[in-house]
Amino acid sequence: MASEHKPVSTIAVTWMAAGTGLLTFIAGIAMLILVFTWAHDTLGTIDQALAKVHVAKPVQAPAMPQPLAQPGKPGAKSAQPPAPAPAAASPASVTASPGGPSLAIVAVGLLLKLFGLLVLGILAGIVAARGAHMVAGALRPPAVGP
User: Fold this and answer.
1) What is the pLDDT of residue 96?
2) What is the CA radius of gyration of the chain?
3) Closest Cα partner for 134 from 24, 37, 4, 52?
4) Domain ranges within the chain, ordered by starting residue
5) Which residue in 142, 134, 132, 125 sits closest to 16, CA to CA?
6) What is the pLDDT of residue 131?
7) pLDDT for 34
8) Cα 70 from Cα 83, distance rounded (Å)
9) What residues contact residue 120 under an 8 Å CB cut-off, 6+ apart?
């Protein structure tokens, strides 16, 4: 008589499990919506981030002065003609404006943000799928044994 607990009906347990699964599914969908909103905002800021990076004109270093004497021979002049200044490798290079980020820093930052959003999206999808499985498992009719 000490333990007069009433048994919990399987219907109440089933609906409680289905309710928990439904709340988990809704939480997963809300997380997916949040991730897609963040991704939209991140992709919208790419133009703003790239606008801070400017194309700079290449700067040529001044030509090296011609040595007056060869090493080891004091007072002797060099018989070689002056070497031409090296040409720039490319007509323009992408660099940051003074104090601004470089293109590599902007690209790495955006790629890290997008990778993080991909991971969060996968996790949100897993949560939503688990909630759907919980609802389906709770509402599935019990298996009848042989």
Assistant:
1) 45
2) 35
3) 24
4) 10-58+91-139
5) 134
6) 95
7) 96
8) 15
9) 31, 35, 38
Q: Length of the chain, please?
A: 146
At 55, list the tokens: 């194309």
* Residue 56, strand partner residues: 93
For residue 52, what is the DSSP state? T
Q: String of b and e for 47-78 (b: at least 16 CB within 10 Å)?
A: eebeeebeeeeeeeeeeeeeeeeeeeeeeeee
Q: Which residue has the tokens 């007069």?
A: 4
Residue 94's nearest CA partner among 123, 65, 51, 135 is 51
- List, run by run, the mean pLDDT of 10-residue segments along the chain (146 residues): 62 83 95 94 84 65 64 58 55 55 83 94 96 89 66
Amino acid at the residue 62: P
Write down the pLDDT at residue 13: 74
Q: Which residues contact 137 (CB under 8 A, 6 or more apart)?
A: 17, 21
Torsion sign, CA atoms 95, 100, 103, 105: positive
Confidence (pLDDT) at 48? 81
Query: What is the reported pLDDT for 60?
Result: 67
Q: How far apart are CA 128 and CA 32, in angstroms?
A: 9
pTM: 0.57
